[in-house]
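ok so for the tutorial part 2 we go from a plain amino acid sequence to predicted structure tokens. step 1 is just haveing the sequence, like this:
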Amino acid sequence: MYFVMTDRFMDGDPANDNPPGCDPALYDPHQKDISRYMGGDLRGLEKAVASGYFNDLGVTTLWLTPVVKNVWLSSYDSGGWKTSYHGYWAQDWLDIDPHLTSASSLDGKPYSDDAEGRMQHYRDFVKLAQSKGIKVIQDVVMNHAGPVFYYDANGDGAFDVTKKEECLQPFMREGYHANAKWADIPKWNARRTQPDGPRELLGAKIKTGGILSRLESYGRKGYSDDSLGKSDGEEILCDFFSLRDFWTAPDGEHFDELVDEFVEIYAFYLTTVGVDGLRIDTVKHVHHEFWDAFTARLRARLGSAAADKLLFGEVYDGNPAVLGRYTWRSDWPASMEPGLDAVLDFNTCFSARSYLRQIGKHFGNAADLEKSIATRAAIDPTKDRPFYNPNPGPDGLGSQQKIITFIENHDGLNRFRVDGITERRNRLAQGLVMTLPGIPCLYYGTEFSLLDKGGKIHEDGETGRMMLYPSRDGPGIADVKSSTSFMEIRALADLREQLPVLRTGKMIPLWVDCDSGSEDDGIFAFARASDDEKQFVIVVINASDEKRVTGDMKLPSSLEINGMILKLVLAIGISDQEEALSIPLANPLRVTVPPSSMVVYELLPAE
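step 2 — the prediction. this is what the tokens look like for a chain of 607 residues:
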């Protein structure tokens, strides 16, 4: 999977950089200010898809940041004045943002200048990707709308955008702010949420009822600086900075209407438009019962087609009990059915970053990384059930098999490579992601080891949201495709295709360094094995800048080692392949690994 911020990939059509009626100050023609639009669009992605860029990288799924029409600016968001270049500030759930669409198709066919034409462009993009063997995941938000209304703090009936109190009101646990009023600032598309009733698009009748355009469907409880970090329910009830939180409580008067509205909307995208799945934003900021109802009703609506759709969520938390909670329904154990199909594994992400994202020659201990992978099949002692629901979804697979493995993203933890992190260390990180269990997810630009000069280790930020292909003074596609990072990711993708055990095999820990003694060496070694252990692959990562030898790695006793060798099938960070030749198999086994490198061996009969 390749996660791309559409506005930050490539400006394929400069004509949409300043859509009609949009404040031109929101676009940065120099593509430097990350708070403004930089011009990336569907046309830029289409050109890359058509050229075979993603096929050459080995990508089989594209996950796009939200494409729906947004409120384009907020006077007060995290860090102050910002635009919605990222797509998470929805204003119209059944229109595509004009910053992303073009007046004609890739082959010159004109689109109408309205929601129908923009939706047609999006569907054409989806079809193009699928024609190349690439699925499309649509990023979606059901926790909140964009800054579609203001709090009329001074009671004058006008939105004073310079007044922070009209954008942000303090959180109130009891009651709500009754002074909320719809905004109406056309140049920022800050206006009442849509749809406000039924729509017809691409020949489909979408029976939306308009609940999103009624103020009573919002909590209107305001926001406090520590709201999002709470775990006492405030994080579910509060606004998300200047964004407007939906009232998703199961006892709410409009609960069923709100669930059904989103089912109607996303059934349209999953069927008529044809996207292959949904990445669901801000999951833990919504009542659990809402996800129970939404996933169950959406799957029922899709029928047999649900088996081909993936619903995975963002639960920004490192605790496997919190992460896995949403793969179960809230009425467990009465119901054992899955809630979300899967989640992004922040637990593994955090521990992998702790191991590899260290300045210069330093490295962390991989013990926590080993433990985080083990939790995927472990029992939650507080619930007496697995952390992640193993019961099969419509596709016959459990959440443990579909969990998303990643090491960087667009939010606070951001890009892996910042000042102090070498390109080589970044390549090791992607090698780890591509060989651990789960669905590997790459963040756009990592195929070029894109450096975030403004980012800092151990500090959250958004500075890594830079343009991958600037209109000037930047790399071209040929530069990126010829880079070592691109070619290694491609080699890893090829290996995953050639060796199914790297996709579906179990993980067997073999060696992890220990920071309590003299053997702290930066080594992390594990095997991927079929259930019968006939197919066997060993992966060893050396985070040290010195040659290392693993300790004694005890292989499964059931493994037949007589006459077998470990054949080197892939190496990262090694210029001289002679440094990691195939070796005779033994039990216990020791492997020598060159500095700052990764080796992958396959178990094969000796020639």
